[in-house]
Amino acid sequence: DAGVIQSPRHEVTEMGQEVTLRCKPISGHDYLFWYRQTMMRGLELLIYFNNNVPIDDSGMPEDRFSAKMPNASFSTLKIQPSEPRDSAVYFCATSSTGVRTGELFFGEGSRLTVL
Amino acid sequence: GESVGLHLPTLSVQEGDNSIINCAYSNSASDYFIWYKQESGKGPQFIIDIRSNMDKRQGQRVTVLLNKTVKHLSLQIAATQPGDSAVYFCAERQGAQKLVFGQGTRLTINP
């Protein structure tokens, strides 16, 4: 299996622009998580889905952030409009019910820089 | 609010020595803990887990100890190797699948 695939790996954009991050989960995994990582705040859970349905979005910082999972093989995290404080590494991770509960499989992340 | 935290942000050890990374948690109701390793430029990777009904669990060169009395978790790495250089996170389960991560400890290996 190719693992969790994220794109783009790096994104540099200007304040006010729309940013879309993409994630392809591991086939058969029914949970998908979006995390944000910064030096100041560490790894923060933004939102997670179960069987394509959002379960908990309490970590989404504000209305500028939105996430979708239109099918079992694709998810997006969108920031509109982007701000410099959104600069971070965004990780997508997936897991499967019945497998070791704590074992999330992370992608390699999308490093976002907002100028 | 409830949180998972780490005592030390950095740890430096000699190659071949044992490493001990510590973690404190505040939610006494937590029943499941996990350690993750994150190498530079990569996503976190599962190392080992432990349930609250255990006080020790061993893997390959790694051991996790859980002290529920003082709400403390530690990761021991035996015979540390250069490939062990990474940031190590403890994580606490909240709910069925939601993990909350600590701030991380950077482990560096001296030759």
Could you explain how this protein is built, in words?
Chain A is mainly beta. Chain A has no helices and eleven strands. In chain A, strands 2, 4, 5, 6, 9, 10 and 11 form a seven-stranded mixed β-sheet that branches. Chain A has a four-stranded antiparallel β-sheet with strand order 1-3-8-7, with no helix packed on it. Chain A is globular. The N and C termini of chain A lie far apart (36 Å). The mean pLDDT of chain A is 93. By secondary structure, chain B is mainly beta. In chain B, a hairpin with a 6-residue loop joins strand 4 and strand 5. Chain B is globular. The mean pLDDT of chain B is 89.
Gyration radius from CA atoms of chain A, angstroms: 13 Å
Please state the structural category of chain A.
mainly beta
SSE run of chain B? EEEEEEEEEEE
Basic shape of chain B: globular
For the biggest sheet of chain B, the summary is: 6 strands, mixed
Number of strands of chain A: 11
Order of helices and strands of chain A: EEEEEEEEEEE
List low-pLDDT spans of chain B: none
Task: Report the mean per-residue pLDDT of chain A as an integer.
Answer: 93
Features:
heterodimer; A: 115 residues; mainly beta; seven-stranded mixed β-sheet; four-stranded antiparallel β-sheet; 11 strands; B: 111 residues; six-stranded mixed β-sheet; five-stranded antiparallel β-sheet; 56% strand
Sequence-ordered SSE layout with sheet pairings:
The complex is a heterodimer of chains A (115) and B (111).
Chain A: E1 5-7, E2 10-13, E3 19-24, E4 31-38, E5 42-50, E6 53-56, E7 65-71, E8 74-79, E9 88-95, E10 105-106, E11 110-114
Parallel strand pairs in A: 2-11
Antiparallel strand pairs in A: 1-3, 3-8, 4-5, 4-9, 5-6, 7-8, 9-10, 9-11
Chain B: E1 4-5, E2 10-14, E3 19-25, E4 32-38, E5 45-51, E6 56-58, E7 62-67, E8 72-77, E9 86-94, E10 98-101, E11 105-110
Parallel strand pairs in B: 2-11
Antiparallel strand pairs in B: 1-3, 3-8, 4-5, 4-9, 6-7, 7-8, 9-10, 9-11
